[in-house]
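pls ignore typos typing on phone
adenosine-5'-diphosphate + seq
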Amino acid sequence: MSEPMVRVEGLRKDFNGFWALKGLDFELHPGEVCGFIGPNGAGKTTAMRIMATIELPSAGEVWVNGHSVLQHPDKVRHALGFMPDQYGHYENLTCEEYLDFYARAYRYKGGDRRQRIEAVIEFTGLGPIRTKLMTDLSKGMKQRLCLGRTLIHDPQVMLFDEPAAGLDPRARAELRDLILELSARGKTVFVSSHILTELADICTHVAIIEKGEMKFKGPVGHAQKAANRFTRYRLRVLEAVDKVERFLLEQPFVEKVATNAHELLIDFAADERHFSQLLAALIREGFAVVESRLVQSNLEEAFLAMTKGDTE
Ligand SMILES: Nc1ncnc2c1ncn2[C@@H]1O[C@H](COP(=O)(O)OP(=O)(O)O)[C@@H](O)[C@H]1O
Ligand SMILES: [Mg+2]
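k done
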């Protein structure tokens, strides 16, 4: 496995006796898009602010591309871009001027600076509105500009704090595409949300946090498995749904059956081979089974099961 791009060890944060983070440990690898999921107040923003060197930890350490947030925060800032959940805007700046301001802050000069600004404008698709004032932008456009600013120094690691909040579906889809493109370019992406489904289709990994503690960190598929003891199948039959239901309930590993018109939802507590034997038994019995398919347990269920819906 590659060297981690981000390593978080024993991260704790105390706000006047309240422990917002109670010892987080995790790693992020290059190309990984990791969803940072947890209810409001779980500690997502606090953890990200510490990773971005805006806040100091009470204990523990974070390394970004090998640089410690405590020892070399300046190096961390060059390796990482942080898009906060709220960002101010400057009344009289155009999009271009805004990007220029940040490029100067990273000490880009002359041609290099122009080139970075153009690269970002191209990536974010801000070309047609480059001379517009920031105050005249829609929420989606303003957010793209903020994303552009976060990318101005071409960081290897990107942190997005609740980027999808308040966006319309179209802007959200565009944001997704941009995140996927960053990942395709080998960036490490860490993106928080309190709504899991918002991220499920773009994440390779998921980190689930609750009350300052990590409940799970791993590949998306493992999160689903960890949360689900059962595999759920959907079955369609041409007739006799009631009889099929009764038959199913007498079979091994069938935990629960729900019916609706011509369909049955089966919670099955064994592997696929056993399920194929169940299907064979149904056919032997003469039931008119026309369709059987695995229902991917969605990530939202995994999240709810792991956090038990707890908020503060
Ligand atoms: N500056 C602060 N002072 C005191 N408490 C804070 C501060 N920042 C965050 N908290 C508390 O820490 C907890 C975690 O907050 P936060 O990291 O913002 O959670 P999330 O981003 O997951 O919603 C919350 O209970 C919040 O009230
Ligand atoms: Mg937050």
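Residues 15, 18, 20, 38, 40-46, 312 surround adenosine-5'-diphosphate (ligand 1) (CB under 6 Å). The mean pLDDT is 89. more later
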